[in-house]
Amino acid sequence: MKIEKPNKTNSDHRSISRRNFFKKALAGAAVIAMKPDVLLSNISNIIETGSVHTEFKKTSEMFPNKEFVWGVESEGKRVGEFWPIHGINLVTKETDPELFEGEIADIQKELRGSATAPDGMTTGSVGSYEMQGKSLTKGIECGDGVVYNYGIVVVENGFNISFTHNKEIPNFDEYYENAKEEKKTLFFLPSIYRNGNFLASQNVIDKILIRRDVPDSKDPTKKKAQIGVILFDTLTTYDRAREIVLGLDREDQNTNQSISKTTHIYVLDGGPKWGQAIKEVNGKVETKGTRDKEVITNYLVFY
């Protein structure tokens, strides 16, 4: 299905509405910094369930939302860094063309994000690139209109983030129309791990979006979602990325109950054309990687 692109007047109006929405949400949201390596000190007989040992190491870099950047170590060696996130805003060249006239830092500044990275779905050829997927940004249609057999991320009110997959949705068209009516954001990402289902591959990536169940800091007997981006220091295969993230999982050997568990690992865009990402830490903006401005179709702004 070909989606008609909005004219500039509509695009301007929608852009302003979306920016105002996130400004209000950020002003009213009680975002509590979360220790990402889970609360394990009061639990005895903890065992690792992955094939390797992975842990997060706190750095001195702090985002505007008071979260810290965490180093990712596997078998005692740093392999990347973890950005905890609480909110996601999808902006596309289709719905917000004026935002793409400047640099990636301009987008993040305009939308008051803590970090920004491209999503993992772009297709096309020279002079004609578009975002893949029958997607939505705050209820506005975007993407190429194709329903891919990939992972799906849904964001409600900016900060209620859920992970699903096309295989888990019996009637996607109905699901999509409901999300559109409720002004949700919905986008597709390649899935390399989903509740035990995984894609074995030696293809390489440099960024992933993950979701894990971890103890709630207010009540360790309950679980809460831990969501964030891992940027690898070097290109990493799907198989190795999955091994690293699953190395974070822990359980109690006395009860065989899960203490922390990875539920989803989705791929974000990378490489020299699409892979540029930025983070604001300690009051400074740091750029990672490069991009070809002409082929970028969208960005995920994180909060």
Report on the structure:
The structure is a single chain. It is built from 5 helices and 22 strands. The protein has 303 residues and is of the alpha+beta class. The protein has one domain (8-302). The strands form 5 sheets. Strands 1, 2, 3, 4, 14, 15, 16, 17, 18 and 19 form a 10-stranded antiparallel sheet that branches. A 5-stranded antiparallel sheet has the order 5-22-6-20-21, with helices on one face. A 3-stranded antiparallel sheet has the order 12-11-13, covered by helices on one side. A hairpin with a 2-residue loop joins strand 3 and strand 4. The longest helix has 21 residues, at 8-28. It is globular, with a radius of gyration of 19 Å. Mean pLDDT is 86; it is low at 1-16, 27-34 and 38-42.
The number of strands is: 22
**Largest sheet, strands/sense/barrel:** 10 strands, antiparallel
What letter string, H or E per element, gives the SSE order?
A: HEEEEEHEEEEEEEHEEEEEHEEHEEE
Distance between the termini: 32 Å
Helix proportion range? 10-25%
Shape: globular
Number of domains: 1
